UniProtKB/TrEMBL annotation:
Protein name: ABC transporter ATP-binding protein
The keyword Disulfide bond is annotated on this UniProt entry: no
Assigned keywords, A-Z: ATP-binding, Nodulation, Nucleotide-binding, Transport
Similarity comment: Belongs to the ABC transporter superfamily.
SMART domains: AAA
Species: Solimonas terrae
UniProt cross-references to SUPFAM superfamilies, sorted A to Z: P-loop containing nucleoside triphosphate hydrolases
Domain of life: Bacteria
GO molecular function list: ATP binding; ATP hydrolysis activity
Keyword hit for Transport: yes
Residues of the ABC transporter domain: 16-245
Residue stretches in coiled coil: none
The organism's taxonomic lineage, starting at the top: Bacteria, Pseudomonadati, Pseudomonadota, Gammaproteobacteria, Nevskiales
Amino acid sequence: MTSTSAPTAAAPASAIEIRGIRKRYGALEALRGVSFDIRRGEFFALLGPNGAGKSTLISIISGLVHASEGSVSVLGHDTVRDYRAARRRLGVVPQELVFDPFFKVRDMLRIQAGYYGCGKEVWPWIDEMLERLDLSAKANVSMRALSGGMKRRVLIAQALVHKPPVVILDEPTAGVDVELRRTTWAFMSDLHRQGTTVVLTTHYLEEAQELCSRIAILDRGSVAVIEPTQHLLARHPYRFLRIKLVDGAQLPEGLMPLVTGEVNGALELKLETSRNPIGGVFDALRTAGIGIEDVHTREPDLEDIFIELTGHPVGAVAAGAPK
Ligand SMILES: Nc1ncnc2c1ncn2[C@@H]1O[C@H](COP(=O)(O)OP(=O)(O)OP(=O)(O)O)[C@@H](O)[C@H]1O
């Protein structure tokens, strides 16, 4: 992509600047004063349980919904006062599949490019995207004949026709099989390497963990945390120990408070590294004369951290969330 060159002295440092955003739907406050920046060239994750306000924030960034208070700019262009310039720099892959079913894939993309004032010069780019997203064989097929996963990839191509330097993907891989998710992420990673800023919302936390260098977690309309992924993963000083006892033996009473669950007949214990060394667990079992059949340890992942921060798994509606 040519429009994603490195920042110059005059260019704004932020790809997206979000300042004091509030959004009210009647009595419901879907966003309660959200402020943060997404830097140029970042691969950034916006996470949160259902109803946290992610889609509302994305709609405000894309200029489709007006905030009740606050402002957003894309590469220095206010999304309200300078809507066209902001929109020109942004590609948004929406969550919902909305298409004219009768258009053929390639024609639809060419028409979409026209809306941004792009002509034949982007046709090779459209064909390149079709190739990268494994859609070349479907270029002359009408939209209604595509599977859900293919439609989702056309949606990605549609958001990128004008080569925007900033791309937002709102759950682009929801319901898409593993192979297609890989294709999508390989393509997005290439664009990112070439300088595109990529913002992603996803319910697949392992995707965010693997791809994104910084993560914001929205919860009930506010930013619960915004940190580099590695800091987020490292700041939780515990690990998990999975342990299967010989002959279904019972765990000693003293270790029971550490148990967080059972997986395939093995108990999972959450150990704080400073307070519950693994050796202490083994000592307690030895003293009680209990044999161990199998054991393994696991570092906390984003899913664990998400639950700890928000009190519920990703995808669950927050208790007391604005509804
Ligand atoms: N047009 C609307 N009118 C009224 N309420 C709305 C509207 N759009 C969103 N909401 C409410 O605002 C809150 C935030 O919704 P939003 O869709 O932004 O959350 P989300 O984090 O994107 O959730 P999900 O992961 O389910 O997509 C929810 O309580 C939702 O019901």
